[in-house]
Fold these 4 entries.
Entry 1:
Amino acid sequence: MIIGYAGLVITILMTGIIVATSGDPMLCVLVAIPASVSSYGFLQARARFCVVYGLAGVFNFASIGKKTKVTDRDARRADLKRAFHINAMAIGVGLTYGGTLYFLLF
């Protein structure tokens, strides 16, 4: 959740700078990065799922730092599917935000 809020603050600050300075249109592409990072944070918190762990095939329900390998093939496939789905949504949000900002300003 902290990553979501940090990315949101950076996105808002970058948007304010772009609007205030009538900046370079390429900055709209760059603002998609913190918008995507913010989306990653909020989507993972909402899903209660870590994309990095899902891609790595591990889980942690014990003490902090103790990782356990996912051995069930169907569970591993489901984790990968969920991780790619969250990736696609987060990147889509970032690109949509950057594209919308570009078309509104330039």
Note: Residues 73-105 form the longest helix (33 residues).
Entry 2:
Amino acid sequence: MKPRISLLTLGVDDLQRAVRFYRDGLGFETEGIVGTEFDHGQADPNPTDLTIGHNVSSKEEVDAVMRQASAAGAAIVKAAHETFWGGYAAYFQDPDGHIWEVAYNPKWEG
């Protein structure tokens, strides 16, 4: 999975589990963890607050990201499929319940 997110702040129930999933499992780099290297923040996690869209360059990349997410411990919500808008997408849920859409849109340059 090639991370393309500049900044992401999510409230989590278990910080170490989230670090294992995002940093160790999905490969997102971090310059520090709030509550460890940085001052404690306060959050009220609610997985229905948002979904996260991760756009990739091909159908094959959607499949690869989904395999990586599953291996990291994500729950597959909806397997990869052709979409009504002409793309290809799949959905997974991270260990804290946040929903991710992994999508390829042939109409977008990427």
Note: The CA atoms of residues 12 and 47 lie 9 Å apart.
Entry 3:
Amino acid sequence: MDNSFVIALAAFCLSACQPTPLMKTASAPKSAPASAPTAANALIGPAKAGFDLSEALCSGCHAIKSSEISPNPQSPTFEMIANAKGLTPGTLSEFLRNSHHFPEKMNFEVVEEDSDLLAAYIITLRSDDYKPPIQ
């Protein structure tokens, strides 16, 4: 199956995760514009491809860059996911491939190649000095 078709199909399926005007608040911080210099600009290979994929498919619900707030308050940031105890690229990729593990709102399929790319990017957000946000 053509990758562009799979990506388009996934984007269509994820459109339900896009924030609605009711989910946004005037006090919510805005994320940096795409042209702003970030660590994501320094990515190469699978991690860069994973970032690009997450920008297209995941950013409607999840904060995909460090120090951002997720557009959907119920969605963990990729930085939080990356710093989960015991997480490895393999365990994350496996989780992403098994849609029965997802919350109901995130019930869609991620093909193996895409799950590996997403995991390769997300793991780059791991930090030894990460401190989870105060809940």
Note: Helices lie at 3-14, 45-57, 78-82, 89-97, 112-122.
Entry 4:
Amino acid sequence: MNTFALVRAVYGAVLLCAPGAVLQRVTGRRADRRSRVTVRVLGVRHMTQAAATAANPGPEALRIGGCVDAMHSASMLGLAMCDRSRRRAGLVDAAVAATFSGVGLLLARRPSRRARSSRSG
């Protein structure tokens, strides 16, 4: 498993296993049931995306994942604008999703190791 997929899988596992602790750390408040369920769903999404990226780490999968992350980031910005009580959580999640998007899109632009080694040999 590549480092990018591993980081995403660990992040997803933390969201899945400890959503209340994550939300309390981010917001400073105790999380309600709805928020904990939502964070668990996001954890599953990240773990699924990590598995997909690990299984097929090529540029196409990374580009698709980067676009999914960008859309997720935009939706969290919308949440932050519309729901004052979830603003901080939305902004933090938007930043994390934007980071995953940027890294994924940058990795998609890099030539694969196989392509680099065939050019140098």
Note: The helical segments are 3-17, 19-27, 33-55, 59-82, 87-109, 113-120.
